[in-house]
């Protein structure tokens, strides 16, 4: 089974390599979607893929890269759309 989640990550998550490490992790797992910084200091991402791999991405986002400090992770499940061909950083 496949699923899609839309997440918002709060804390010290910008300027610490969060987007690049999320892209690397997603590509390793075969998860597709995007990640971007928001003006309010959060990071937003959409993950689509196999249930287990998407769950692994959620777990990754709870910690992030070494320099990050995650305070909160908002997770919203959405209908799986299979709309992405890869995982990218969005600007």
From TrEMBL:
Q: List UniProt keywords, sorted A-Z.
A: Hydrolase
The UniProt record lists the EC number as: 3.6.1.7
What InterPro entries does the database record attribute to this sequence? Acylphosphatase, Acylphosphatase-like_dom, Acylphosphatase-like_dom_sf, Acylphosphatase_CS
Positions annotated as active site in the UniProt record: 19, 37
Class of the enzyme per the UniProt entry, highest EC level: hydrolase
Catalytic activity line of the entry: an acyl phosphate + H2O = a carboxylate + phosphate + H(+)
Which residue range or ranges hold the Acylphosphatase-like domain? 4-91
PROSITE patterns cross-referenced by the UniProt entry:
ACYLPHOSPHATASE_1 (PS00150), ACYLPHOSPHATASE_2 (PS00151), ACYLPHOSPHATASE_3 (PS51160)
Q: Where is the signal peptide?
A: none
Q: Which Gene Ontology MF annotations are present?
A: acylphosphatase activity
Q: Does the keyword Kinase apply?
A: no
Top-level taxon of origin? Archaea
- Give the protein family: Belongs to the acylphosphatase family.
Q: What is this protein called?
A: Acylphosphatase
From what organism does this protein derive?
Methanohalarchaeum thermophilum
